[in-house]
Amino acid sequence: MGFDKKENERTQKPLPPEGQTLGLCYSIIDLGTQVTSYPGKPPGEAHQLQLSWELPKYRAVFNQEVGEQVMALFQTYTFSLSEKANFRKMIDSWIGKPVKELNDETMQKFLGRPCMIQVVHAPSKDGKLKYANIAMKGLGIYKRPADVPFPDKTENEKIFFSLSAFSWETYNKLPKFMQETIAKCKEWPGILKKYPAVAASANAMDEDEAARAVTGGIISEDDIPF
Q1: Which residue has the higher pLDDT, 197 or 219?
Q2: Which helix (H) or strand (E) holds 12?
Q3: What is the secondary structure of 16-60 as a DSSP string?
Q4: What is d(CA 102, CA 183) in angstroms, rounded to the nearest whole number?
Q5: Where are the beta strands (DSSP E) in 167-223?
Q6: Residue 50 region, left (φ>0) first, then alpha (ψ -120 to 50), else beta?
Q7: What is the pLDDT of residue 214?
Q8: 54-to-44, 130, 167, 219 alpha-carbon distances in Å
Q9: What is the pLDDT of residues 48-57, one digit of tens each?
Q10: How many Å apart are CA 36 and CA 58, to the nearest integer?
Q11: What is the pTM assigned to this prediction?
Q12: Helix or strand (DSSP H, E) at 136
């Protein structure tokens, strides 16, 4: 959670404190192949995933109309199982052993799965605000120690979105900014051709609504076949 932007005003939002805390994964979103740009390098392409975790220990009011909500963090990764890839390193650290394979079926089993997250704070470019991030550019995800308890349900609705098994129903549940990002991916023209567009849901979430509490069942850590 960083800032709220309304009428060109930026205000500091509540942040979870720095340090290690329990996280529960509630969202895995396939962003498709996106154009990437890094300082000193020519533009490229990368298949990206965005994962989100709620932090059960920390709550705050981000919207007075919604009331108190669980805090959350998200991270975008380049999807790669190369041993040098950050995504592969993060997954191996999360499950505590080398991953054998990842596909839609196995990735869905990470929804509700607990982990430990190393939270760090970083200033905005102008130094006026602070953001809460996952340490080491998303690598600060670790296996949950057996003696650390965790809730048996996530508060946020659990969402898994994959372009390989596209669903307008799921797409229309995503925050608008995320829908716009997905619509820029290389695969989007093919998606529209294969799955003719339908009207967006009136219930599509905006950024503030994306963390509204909706319960979802959890899958045992032992159910993931690694």
Answers
A1: 197
A2: strand 9-12
A3: PPSEEEEEEEEEEEEEEEEEE--TTS--EEEEEEEEEEEEEEEEE
A4: 24
A5: 213-217
A6: beta
A7: 28
A8: 31, 19, 24, 16
A9: 999 999 999 9
A10: 33
A11: 0.82
A12: helix 135-138
